[in-house]
Model the fold of this input.
Amino acid sequence: MRNMIRFISLMSLMTLMLSGCTSLSQDVFDTHRKALLLPEDTLGDQASRVVYPEQNWDPDDSLWFYNTAQGSHLLPYNIFLHLEQANSQSLFRASDNMDRLRYLVQKPSRANPDGLPLGWVKERYQGKEYVGLTCAACHTGQVNYQGVAIRIDGGPTLSDMDKLLNELAAALEATTKDPEKFKRLAARLLDKATPEDQQALLDEVKHLEQNLRRYNTANASYADAQPVPYGYGRLDAFGRIYNRVFAHLTPGVENTNPANAPVSYPQLWDTPQHDFVQWNGVGDNEGDGTLSRNVGQAIGVFATLDLQRLPADAGYRSSVNIRNVQRLEIHLEKLWSPSWQELANKNILPPINRELAEKGAAVYTEYQCHTCHALIDRTDPNRRITAHFASLQPLNTDPAMAHNALHYAGKSGYLEGQVSLKPPARVFAAQVSALAAVRDVTEGVIRAAQAEETEQNEGTADHTTWRSSVQIQSTRRLLDFEYVDKTNPQTLMAYKARPLNGIWATAPYLHNGSVANLYELFLPSCSDAEIAAGKVCRANQFTLGSRELDPVKVGLVQRDPQTYPNVFVLDTRLPGNANKGHEYAAGVTPVAVFDEQGQLIKDAEGKVVMRKLPPINDEKRKALVEFLKTL
Done:
């Protein structure tokens, strides 16, 4: 144990010293990535300059990531470009409106001539142009500190996609019902506004509105008839991908499940180096697992999809850009997590208290944090990460996401009676699990795209394949400190721990974003009555929307909803939002017991021996937070 403490302390000191000597590949006050800063916004934030931490990407790397299409088709491009807001003549895409929805706004550039928000791009497919979303729309973050905006590549977005899509539907509807609004749209889009052309445009806008309304209704977040809004920085991505696949398998038939388990957008650094990804580890990085995962997310963000397979088809026709999806994953291999210390060295963030951080390193070991959250060198190109999973019991965090991901099912539609494309081969019955349906559809999309590329390149010298330099060997799932059969679906009833480098830039915390800051993460969850009685606990309600960093508790500052009505109040008492669990430092969640050789101790029945540690005091809590800043 003493050796582990010394190792962590030494590693912490080396991080502090080396990060101060790191030579940036670009000026930290970067103007080349085309960030646009607004005056004080409706959520109380303001910044006068933007900076980029050293993450091993130069400006061209970032811009490529921001603007590389993956086959997403949200709306026809020109309609989106000129669409007005529902209750205003201002364009929907206006920077102040997109900033209110917490998408990062950008200046025009060569790859983004219309100045769309970061991660929004023009897509072309079968002779038509669409507006679509790239990986960067959901996986680029920003935190502000004292007038400086810190843009973080691969960080979680704070956007509210659910609000975006509902307001987009309202804008389309208003355009069809307000003659003056429609007249302005027609004037912008039609060279000769003949009655026939106007009617065709009106019919198209109505059709788009109806499709989006159906999507929003299918994905409305309810639990026991109670609405559960996502708010900023959260989305039930699994639920929505499942519903999109089921909708395409059974067009015109109700075949959805409630998308009521919102989770935080995960950070992307170290993703290619993991054996398993996603909050419950459903994404396997072995072999073609990375491609399947990324095809699935492209489907989730409105890729065009046709699941009515013809006999001659190699798979399923879609707009998914397989080559770009592969290239995006490879691009992430060299991405580093952001360093607090590097920004502190440049007087952007406050300095780390080294003495306090050293005490926190000892607490990190004492409370066995390192047994699940391994310490890694964030810059090591050869780093490989074994994900540690903890079963829902005794971890006790909100089970909704893991439960839905494993147990959701629906009508198989076009799949019924077909032999699965994804091994092992089986014939689909009338009902199918959502997970099996998505896996087979992504396999079919990959096969069709690869067959099309082979046909296009036949007889040419272009046989480029994009292969990862990160090789993940045959993977076994590490659950509760023991390797288990990853093909057993019940092992997905768990949540993943990952290294905590860059954790300071990813608030709110826990998989469902139910804890406001790192300081509160080390407090117990409590009832309203306990809080009212004066017990120091995790907050049962807090606000989301501000990007301003709280450098002491390490989270995002709270805004008064009375002053800033656009903030979102997250209520952890609603289904799917529970802030319970992972209460090791609070003396609530038990830890596994190891012997002096680091081996698990089991009882006579073969069960792992567990024990609860005493709650840490406030001094240790602050020290632990300070240590996490160094990672």
About this structure: Residues 1-28 have pLDDT under 50 and may be disordered. The first strand starts at residue 49 and ends at 51.
